[in-house]
Recover the amino acids of this structure.
């Protein structure tokens, strides 16, 4: 309802603002399970045209209030999200989970009371370290979309293995690999796994803070869960629950092999970012973009590992 | 454009003016990138030599500057004939030129990583044996500070422990009698633009054959990324030994020998 009114207002205001960039977030939650909605982010890089709204978000209705998993990139997004979610459930937001440190998931918490925002201790530490830099980067890319957004840290450290909201219980899993602290959640009532950025689906995984062996271990744990479906951090809903897990693993395995082969056969970084991407990833959004980012993340380390030392003592 | 036509008209109407030298007109072609620094850099790098933008030379780089301290670039001028010099520069960097390379006995190809201090044109310029310069490049969007933030090795504090470490390998390239050399250095490549850290950078590097023949030589500047990595294609056969010598602004020398492998490793990854 609120969206319709907002859209109408935006339409009425158009003549007055003609020529100005439209910086209103259009948030469309889609029901995916009983009492759970997914907001599908743009499966693209962070860009002014999408306002940085690229991460998926979950809205969960419980007997005692509304829960959110992730909060979007900005104060404006967080405020719109809060209004949309509360309009949907008719209950106030009482908990916001932040799955990991990255700003497309966590800068929107600026719209909420820090006391209701929960994240893994590691993620909070990492946000305190990198948040300022992320904030600068988003302001540079997104301009007015970010207006008023301040860096806020979650006020609650997740140390418990589950949290109960009037009978709706969420299992909270402290994992790692996409970052040093990745939260995954399992809704016990529906069997829905909310994977955060441990899961990418039809959208290439991003690796700026990745530890690939730990990521594989985490994917192993997720694959063994008794879940029925999965809501990935980026990309469409996965009704099978296993496809996003398998696809994420397939990509990071291929990525490591391809970059290792590139270093060992003498390619430079530009060439490594231009290697063919296998046909099975053809449906993956932002594949070339993420490959080239990953080259930047991993290449120096792989060179140090695979190129032999050749220096002679200083004479 | 309109201004150019106006000038032409003026010249046509005043025959006397044609005899006057230097009508305050830039001797360089109009910059397709519309960079504010084009003429200044052109004067510095090209001087009185002829210049043109030419699609036959390629400056290759990724679609996103993921790390403004280390932006990969490759300048490829294979197929345009003999090349004397290859220059990689970024117009709006405080240290614009990154590398000035002379491929004496090498294919005209060089790849490295550079710092970007802001959104800037990044260019490659190639001088043919005739003296003609060919230029290519594009605007690259980047977060600021690549040249004015301290290098990672200064932050972690371990740069001195690894200074002078070199890694490298060389592989034969097909049938052309050329080999691909990759060489990396551990070096902070301090720009002098960070408070209380003076300029400290590798400033020259040569690659010679085992008999001492100069294959390629270059001047490097502090806008080359920390821990420089360089890819060249010297004309040597499998089994040859490449001798690499570099020197930094403190006079420290760096020397390495890299044998060219007997076999190409291209089975591992497709060569572009």
């Amino acid at each position: 309802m609120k969206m319709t009114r907002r859209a109408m207002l935006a339409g009425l205001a158009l003549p007055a603002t003609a020529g100005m960039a439209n910086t209103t977030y259009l948030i469309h939650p889609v029901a995916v399970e009983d009492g759970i909605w997914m907001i599908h982010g743009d499966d693209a890089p962070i860009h002014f045209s999408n306002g940085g709204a690229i991460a998926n978000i979950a809205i969960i209705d419980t007997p005692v209030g509304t829960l959110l998993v992730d909060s979007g990139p900005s104060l404006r997004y967080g405020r719109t999200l809060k209004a949309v979610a509360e309009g949907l459930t008719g209950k106030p937001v009482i908990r916001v989970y932040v799955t990991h440190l990255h700003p497309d998931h966590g800068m929107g918490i600026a719209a909420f009371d820090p006391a209701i925002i929960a994240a893994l201790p590691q993620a909070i530490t990492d946000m305190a370290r990198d948040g300022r830099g992320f904030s600068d980067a988003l302001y540079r890319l997104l301009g007015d979309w970010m207006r008023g957004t301040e860096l806020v840290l979650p006020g609650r450290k997740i140390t418990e293995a589950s949290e109960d909201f009037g009978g709706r219980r969420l299992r909270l899993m402290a994992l790692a690999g996409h970052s040093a602290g990745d939260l995954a959640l399992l809704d016990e009532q529906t069997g829905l796994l909310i994977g955060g950025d441990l899961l990418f689906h039809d959208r290439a995984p991003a690796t700026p803070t990745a530890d690939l062996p730990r990521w594989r271990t985490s994917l192993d744990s997720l694959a063994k869960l008794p879940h029925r479906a999965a809501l990935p951090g980026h990309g469409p809903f996965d009704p099978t629950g296993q496809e996003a897990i398998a696809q994420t693993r397939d990509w990071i395995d291929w990525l490591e092999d391809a970059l290792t082969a590139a270093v060992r056969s003498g390619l430079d970084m530009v060439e490594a970012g231009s290697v063919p991407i296998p046909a099975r990833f053809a449906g993956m959004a932002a594949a070339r973009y993420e490959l080239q980012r990953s080259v930047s993340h991993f290449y120096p380390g792989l060179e140090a590992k695979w190129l032999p030392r050749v220096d002679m003592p200083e004479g | 454009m309109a201004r150019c036509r106006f000038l032409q008209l003026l010249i046509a109407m005043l025959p006397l003016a044609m005899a006057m030298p230097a009508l305050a007109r830039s001797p360089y072609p109009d910059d397709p990138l519309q960079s504010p620094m084009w003429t200044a850099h052109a004067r510095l790098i090209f001087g009185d030599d002829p210049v043109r933008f030419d699609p036959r030379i390629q400056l290759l780089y990724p679609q996103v500057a993921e790390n403004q301290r280390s932006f990969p670039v490759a300048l490829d001028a294979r197929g345009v004939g003999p090349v004397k010099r290859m220059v990689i520069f970024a117009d709006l960097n405080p240290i614009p030129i990154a590398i000035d390379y002379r491929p004496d006995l090498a294919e005209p190809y060089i790849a490295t990583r550079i710092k970007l201090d802001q959104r800037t044109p990044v260019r490659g310029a190639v001088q043919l044996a005739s003296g003609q310069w060919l230029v290519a490049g594009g605007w690259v969007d980047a977060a600021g500070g690549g040249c004015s933030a301290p290098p990672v090795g200064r932050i972690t504090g371990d740069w001195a422990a690894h200074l002078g470490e070199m890694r490298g390998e060389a592989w034969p390239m097909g049938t052309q009698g050329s080999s691909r050399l990759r060489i990396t250095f551990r070096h902070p490549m301090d720009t002098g633009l960070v408070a209380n850290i003076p300029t400290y950078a590798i400033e020259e590097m040569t690659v010679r054959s085992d008999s001492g023949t100069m294959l390629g030589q270059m001047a490097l500047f502090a806008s080359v990324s920390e821990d420089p990595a360089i890819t060249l294609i010297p004309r040597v056969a499998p089994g040859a030994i490449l001798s690499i010598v570099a020197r930094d602004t403190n006079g420290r020398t760096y020397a390495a020998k890299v044998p060219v492998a007997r076999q190409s490793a291209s089975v591992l990854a497709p060569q572009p």
In short: The CA atoms of residues 76 and 109 of chain B lie 5 Å apart. The longest strand of chain B covers residues 106-114. Residues 9-23, 267-272 of chain B have pLDDT under 50 and may be disordered. Chain B touches chain A through 47 residues (CB under 8 Å).
